[in-house]
């Protein structure tokens, strides 16, 4: 984004531990592809000495990491570790790879923190409403036999978990953010790389600055604001990407665990800024479910930097948490 495009908008600059040093001679590379049925992109700045061979090897490592996340956590793949857990005999212990259990630990921590507003065990409801591998239902889904809160029955272990009766995991609301973190980690470890902006399915994380010293300016989805991303991530959950309309009502893909139905809150979009993209990803989902009053109270108590887009009749207004207001 050009700096002049920032004019007239809210400009959000997170606290910096120290100004990152620009590299005026750095070369720009763009790597991109598809994973998790969505697009990913890395804008990379590197010293001119980075060889084409090193660049190709880095690209391969990024693709391999994305494939690993997909192979372990995709609910759409019959051969994924997540599907293996979800189809295991109830009461049996399922061995799981280390990366999966790390993400599962993050998911359970966020579920506890949010009082279940973020629930990683709603796959049955997601599929019933047509937001999984199945088609969108003709009318309202029958979820009378479903209930949320299955995550409370899970006991986290570093090498796997016991699958409780009726519990099926869905990590889609945290896996993309985690994948973005992993890609940036690989970029940082590559000698010669000096800055990068990583996007996976709309979730972004940034490091360093552009050659002219300007930050990575990123637009907040659906809002009149931009943020400077350095050692910071941004994730948005909303009802504008995946939804269907029933009797004139927007049915969001974000499921409320209390009803096992699309959230009926007055929040149409929630954006979270956090150093960890996985946490921003998961918390954005939780805030969508809570509704304005509870979400703002939660964000204030937990010092979460967030922007909420709230329906107010026929209009939408923006509400910033105190932590985010401090960045103006």
From TrEMBL:
Keywords: FAD, Flavoprotein, Lipoprotein, Magnesium, Metal-binding, Transferase. It comes from the Bacteria. It is an enzyme of class 2 (transferase). Magnesium. Can also use manganese. Mg(2+) binds at residues 173, 281, 285. InterPro entries: ApbE (IPR024932), ApbE-like_sf (IPR003374). Pfam families: ApbE. GO terms for molecular function: metal ion binding; transferase activity. Its EC number is 2.7.1.180. It catalyses: L-threonyl-[protein] + FAD = FMN-L-threonyl-[protein] + AMP + H(+). Its cofactor is Mg(2+); Mn(2+). Belongs to the ApbE family. This is FAD:protein FMN transferase. It comes from Asticcacaulis biprosthecium C19.
